[in-house]
Design goal:
By secondary structure, the chain is of the alpha+beta class. The protein has three domains: 12-146; 151-268, Rossmann fold; 272-350. The protein is built from twelve helices and 15 strands. It has helices at residues 35-44, 97-114, 117-130, 148-152, 157-164, 168-176, 188-197, 219-226, 272-286, 292-310, 327-332, 337-349, and strands at residues 2-4, 15-19, 24-28, 57-62, 65-73, 83-92, 132-133, 141-142, 180-184, 211-212, 231-235, 249-252, 257-260, 314-316, 323-325. Strands 1, 2, 3, 4, 5 and 6 form a six-stranded antiparallel β-sheet that branches. A five-stranded mixed β-sheet has the order 10-11-9-12-13, covered by helices on one side. The chain has a two-stranded antiparallel sheet with strand order 7-8. Strand 12 (249-252) and strand 13 form a beta hairpin. Helix 2 (97-114) runs antiparallel to helix 3, helix 6 (168-176) crosses helix 9 (272-286) and helix 9 (272-286) runs antiparallel to helix 10 (292-310). The longest helix has 19 residues, at 292-310. The protein starts with a strand and ends in a 6-residue tail after the last helix. Keywords: Endosome, Guanine-nucleotide releasing factor. This is UDENN domain-containing protein. InterPro entries: FAM45 (IPR042431), Tripartite_DENN (IPR037516).
């Protein structure tokens, strides 16, 4: 998909252009898309914002589809006349920002050179069918160079811990309990970097579908978001802080503040177990010898230990389908109240409660 800014004499794939008159046009799209998705992508690409900063690359998720948008300024030497900027948008089923940033950069270079979607389409179809596109002057791209696990490990847990210290355990607890986390920062790049890293705190799930790294306070987007049981949602509009219906935990990244919403406080009560987890996270992250992936491994081992604590209080359900919590057995164990409360809510998050 290409978005560009220019007068309205163009054809159509996934592209948007901005012209010298400041008009933004949807130029081409392959395959076709819905009006709703088109409006969403126009909102995400920075061309429609007056006098706003250019964001070279943004990504996010909407109704189980990922979108990746690269935007470039058109140099005077380009074949594209009367066009000041354009965006190339790819939608995909997988989370892999590095992969799609690399691919859209190559497509941008092709568009700048040829001024027509045809060459881009050839490369797009080549990657779709063979996983590779090669071009002398624009660089080559190989899908298998971009492993999903690499994308999961691309963010820095150590950076998060250096910003929030012991409070990182609030984020870990919220993720364990599949709560709704909203993250605010005025800069989209900061929001994306922070939010994409958070699912690694619950590495045992390896679930990045909970990530919605770029959300607007738009009715359709919020409706889609609220259909998800637990999520991490990134916003650049501070107005989201007043929308307590959207979050259990609110992270103001700009002010380094984490707030637990009143309705989530009972499930998120912190105790001895949380203190242990928090100390482990901080100690591991502050060890200069340890890489981010080793810190993730340490947290993952501690998380597995918590599930091991829960195991003796689970039993096979009556229909033999899954393991469910024996709440009486948990109560008899006489854990500290906060630990018992957390294990109960964890069992609920893992769908282990008897219906």
């Amino acid at each position: 998909m290409v978005l560009k800014q220019r007068p309205a004499d163009s054809d159509s794939e996934h592209g948007v252009e901005k012209d010298t008159n400041g008009e933004v046009l949807w130029v081409w799209c392959y395959p076709s898309t819905t009006a709703t998705l088109r409006n969403l992508l126009l909102r995400k690409c920075c061309l429609t914002d007056e006098n706003k900063l250019l964001h070279p690359f943004v990504f996010g998720q909407y109704r189980r589809a990922w979108f990746y948008i690269t935007t470039v300024e058109v140099p005077d030497s380009s074949i594209l006349k009367k066009v000041t900027h354009f965006s190339i948008v790819l939608t995909a089923k997988d989370f892999n920002p590095e992969k799609y940033a690399a691919f859209t950069r190559i497509l941008c270079r092709m568009y700048l050179k040829h001024g027509s979607p045809v060459k881009m389409m050839e490369s797009y179809i080549a990657v779709l069918t063979k996983g590779i596109c090669q071009s002398e002057e624009n660089g080559s791209f190989l899908s298998k160079d971009f492993d999903a696990r690499k994308a999961y490990l691309a963010g820095s847990i150590k950076d998060i811990v250096s910003q929030f210290g012991m409070e990182t355990v609030i984020l870990h607890t919220a993720l364990m309990l599949k709560k709704r986390i909203v993250v605010y920062h005025p800069k989209i790049e900061a929001v994306q970097e922070f939010t994409r890293t958070l699912p690694a705190l619950v590495w045992h799930r390896q679930d990045w579908t909970i990530l919605h790294s770029y959300v607007h306070l738009d009715a359709d987007e919020l409706e889609a978001l609220q259909m998800c049981p637990g999520y991490i949602a990134g916003f650049v509009d501070l107005e989201v802080s007043n929308r307590s219906d959207l979050y259990d935990v609110f992270v103001n990244l700009a002010d380094s503040e984490i707030t637990i919403a009143p309705l989530a406080k009972e499930a998120m009560t912190m105790g001895k177990l949380h203190k242990e987890v928090g100390q482990l996270i901080v100690q591991s992250a502050e060890d200069p010898e340890k890489s981010d992936s080793q810190v993730i491994q340490d947290i993952s081992l501690k998380t597995k230990e918590i599930f091991t604590n829960l195991a003796p209080f689970s039993e096979v359900s009556d229909d033999g389908e899954k393991r469910v919590l024996n709440y009486e057995a948990l109560k008899q164990r006489r854990f500290p109240p906060a630990t018992e409360n957390f294990l109960y809510h964890l069992a609920a998050a893992e769908q282990m409660l008897k219906i």
